[in-house]
Design a protein that fits this description.
Order of helices and strands: HHHEEEHEHEHEHEHEHEHHEHHH
Strand content: 5-15%
Strand order of the largest sheet: 3-4-5-6-7-8-9-10
Radius of gyration: 19 Å
Number of helices: 14
Distance between the termini: 46 Å
């Protein structure tokens, strides 16, 4: 339960909490500050894995509406990657059409090994491609995707930051098996950001990574706050507990998101969706109260009382959902050949 409460981090971060409170009073929404610069970011962002991947020529107006409602609700942080099919293109095109490109905080990624050791050409081509797709001269945050070639790539990111090609640098992963190496990179103290999986179900990041990020002054983006929709499957047909009213949660999505962003070390959570109504529902979490330590513990206890909650890791991603984009098409073609 100590991990669920985040007691050590809460006690160690009065400055961060005070800064976040000041930013919230000024803007009317819940924000968190990037420790290295004190730049404020809304505490809820938008993920694009699978959900923003659309086969060229297919309708994607619904994704422009997702971005519009997200932005109108106070959202600014959008996380994408060259590996997300047409995700970068969709974000770039719609941001330009909506006239909000310069007002977004784009968190992108790079997956590059080069053709030989210390070959930077592939990485630079990837950066240029991302700039073109996103219609950006400078990327706000560039992250080493899933720690791929991380020892080589982090020095390149530092050089790009010095050159003004990117504003911040970081590393990412989404699996618990890589929590230790991810934490080790944070411990070195030279990252602006780290992105890690964190949810009311998967709380492993609380053991070392989140406290280390607080200690080292590293901003934290969290992925999989809904466990790839598996949390919704577990609570399907169940009403919210009565105490959810105390934190202003009107839906299960808000219940899960409020739990994540109430951890003081979390800078921004990244729920992904292709549904405009869900985007509006998610971003509404930026307004209203957040659970304190006692309420966070109560929320965990409630979820642990629901049958199937302890089996979430064994469930397939996105139950009852389909995202027929270029990634799905490629996977289908591969299965047909094998």
């Amino acid at each position: 339960m100590q991990g669920a409460l985040g007691l050590g981090v809460t006690a160690a971060m009065p400055g961060l909490l005070a800064g976040a409170a000041r930013a919230q009073q000024q803007s009317g929404i819940i924000t968190r500050t990037i420790p290295r610069t004190n730049e404020a970011l809304p505490a809820v962002g938008l993920g694009t894995f699978l959900v923003f991947d659309v086969i060229p020529g297919q309708k994607r107006d619904h994704l422009r509406e997702v971005m519009r409602r997200f932005f109108d609700g106070g959202g600014r942080v959008i996380d994408t990657s060259p590996l997300y099919g047409t995700g970068e293109i969709t974000v770039g095109d719609h941001a330009a059409a909506l006239g909000i490109s310069d007002q977004l905080f784009i968190a992108n990624k790079i997956w590059s090994t080069g053709e030989y050791l210390m070959d930077e050409s592939h990485a630079r081509r990837s950066l240029q491609q991302s700039e073109n797709r996103l219609w950006r001269e400078r990327i706000d945050l560039m992250q080493v995707h899933s720690l791929v070639n991380v020892d080589v790539m982090v020095p390149y990111l530092r050089a790009w930051k010095k050159e003004g090609r990117i504003r911040y640098l970081g590393v990412t992963h989404f699996e618990n098996a890589y929590m230790e190496p991810l934490t080790n990179w944070v411990e070195r103290g030279n990252l602006d950001f780290v992105q890690v999986n964190y949810s009311i179900f998967n709380r492993q990041a609380e053991q070392r990574l989140l406290p280390m990020a607080a200690e080292r002054g590293t901003a934290v983006l969290t992925n999989m706050p809904f466990e790839k929709s598996r949390l919704f499957k577990v609570v399907e047909g169940r009403p919210l507990p009565d105490f959810a009213r105390e934190i202003g949660a009107e839906t299960w999505a808000q219940f899960f998101l409020k739990w994540v962003i109430s951890h003081p070390a979390v800078t921004c959570a990244l729920p992904a969706t292709s549904n405009p109504d869900h985007a509006a529902e998610n971003i509404a979490v930026l307004r209203g109260p957040l659970p304190d330590r006692e309420m966070r513990a109560r929320m965990v206890r409630h979820m642990e009382s629901i049958p199937g909650f302890d089996k979430i890791a064994e469930m397939p991603w996105y139950p009852d959902k389909r995202y027929p984009g270029t990634i799905a098409r490629g996977q289908a073609e591969l299965r047909a050949r094998t």
